[in-house]
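Exercise 7. Given the encoded structure of a 301-residue chain, write a plausible sequence.
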C-alpha cells in the first residue's frame, strides 16, 4: 500500500514539475510569439491609417538613425487618444535595441500587444508628461534592458503627428503605487515604466526623458480618439480577468488527459499511438490554459 502511495505521489510530483517547466517556457517564448504577431498587425494598421504619402514614408523610415529630426522641440497639437488597444505610434531606443509599436492603455490585454500608453497622460509629442509602460520579462519583454538607458540616450517616438526625440534625464526605482512619476508637468517629458527587478513586480523602474527635437507631419492629427480620462491610480494597470474561462480550460485539460489515459489503458496494443495523438491535443489545450492562467498571476510588467 505504501509503495503504491509513494508511486502515485512521485508521478504527481513529476507531472507537476513538467507542467511548471512548460508554463515557464510559455511565459518566455509563447508570449513572445504572440506579442510578435501583434506587433506585425499593429505596424500594418498604423501605416494604413494615413493617406499622406509623406507621413507613410516617414513612419516606414523612422527607424533609420540618419532620419532623426534636428529641429527645435515643437510640440504637437493636443488631441484625444485612440481607443484602448489601438496603435498610437512607434518607440525606438537605439541604446538597448528597442523598436516597437505602442498602443493606448496599460491593462492586461493592451500590454500583451506591446508597450502601452497610460490613459489620462498626454500623448507622446504633446505638451506635458507622456507615460508609457512595457513588459520586462514576458510578451516580448520590450523593456527588459530599460535599466541600461543612460542619461542623454535618445528615445525616439513616431506617431501620426510627427517624430519626437527625447533625451533620457534620469532613472529611479519607485513603489507600484507611486503615480507621482506619471503626473503632468509643465515641461515636455516622456516617462517609461517597467517592473523591477526582473521577474518581479515588487517595485517599478522609471526613466524620465525630455523632448529635445521634433518634426511635425502635415495635418498632424490622430484618427478617431476619445477625450483624456483620469490617470491610473497605480503603475500596474487593470489586471481584472475572467476566472471562469481559466476554470473551464482547466476542466477540459483534466478531462482530455483522463480520456487519453483511459484509452491507453483500454487499448494497450495501440497505447503509444494514443499517447502520441493525445499529447498533441493536451499541448494545444495547455496553450490556451496557460494563456488564461497568466493574467491571474500577480501583476507584473
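Solution.
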Amino acid at each position: 500500500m505504501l509503495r503504491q502511495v509513494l508511486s502515485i505521489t512521485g508521478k504527481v510530483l513529476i507531472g507537476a514539475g513538467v507542467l511548471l517547466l512548460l508554463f515557464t517556457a510559455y511565459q518566455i517564448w509563447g508570449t513572445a510569439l504572440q506579442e510578435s504577431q501583434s506587433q506585425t498587425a499593429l505596424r500594418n494598421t498604423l501605416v494604413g491609417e494615413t493617406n499622406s504619402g509623406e507621413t507613410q514614408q516617414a513612419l516606414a523610415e523612422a527607424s533609420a538613425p540618419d532620419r532623426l529630426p534636428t529641429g527645435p522641440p515643437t510640440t504637437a497639437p493636443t488631441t484625444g487618444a485612440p481607443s484602448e488597444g489601438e496603435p498610437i505610434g512607434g518607440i525606438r531606443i537605439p541604446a538597448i535595441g528597442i523598436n516597437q509599436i505602442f498602443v493606448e492603455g496599460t491593462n492586461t490585454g493592451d500590454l500583451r500587444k506591446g508597450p502601452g500608453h497610460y490613459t489620462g497622460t498626454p500623448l507622446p509629442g504633446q505638451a506635458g508628461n507622456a507615460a508609457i509602460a512595457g513588459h520586462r520579462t514576458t510578451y516580448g519583454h520590450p523593456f527588459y534592458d530599460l535599466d541600461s538607458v543612460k542619461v542623454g540616450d535618445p528615445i525616439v517616438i513616431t506617431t501620426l503627428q510627427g517624430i519626437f526625440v527625447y533625451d533620457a534625464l534620469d532613472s529611479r526605482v519607485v513603489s507600484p503605487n507611486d503615480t507621482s512619476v506619471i503626473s503632468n508637468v509643465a515641461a515636455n517629458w516622456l516617462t517609461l515604466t517597467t517592473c523591477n527587478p526582473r521577474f518581479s513586480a515588487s517595485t517599478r523602474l522609471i526613466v524620465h526623458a525630455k523632448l529635445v527635437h521634433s518634426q511635425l507631419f502635415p495635418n498632424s492629427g490622430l484618427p478617431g480618439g476619445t477625450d483624456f480620462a483620469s490617470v491610473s491610480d497605480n503603475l500596474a494597470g487593470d489586471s481584472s480577468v475572467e476566472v471562469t474561462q481559466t476554470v473551464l480550460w482547466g476542466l477540459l485539460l483534466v478531462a482530455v488527459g483522463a480520456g487519453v489515459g483511459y484509452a491507453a489503458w483500454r487499448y494497450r496494443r495501440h497505447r503509444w499511438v494514443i499517447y502520441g495523438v493525445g499529447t498533441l491535443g493536451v499541448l494545444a489545450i495547455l496553450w490556451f490554459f496557460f494563456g488564461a492562467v497568466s493574467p491571474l498571476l500577480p501583476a507584473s510588467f
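Remark. The longest helix spans residues 2-48. Students should compare their own answers with the one above.
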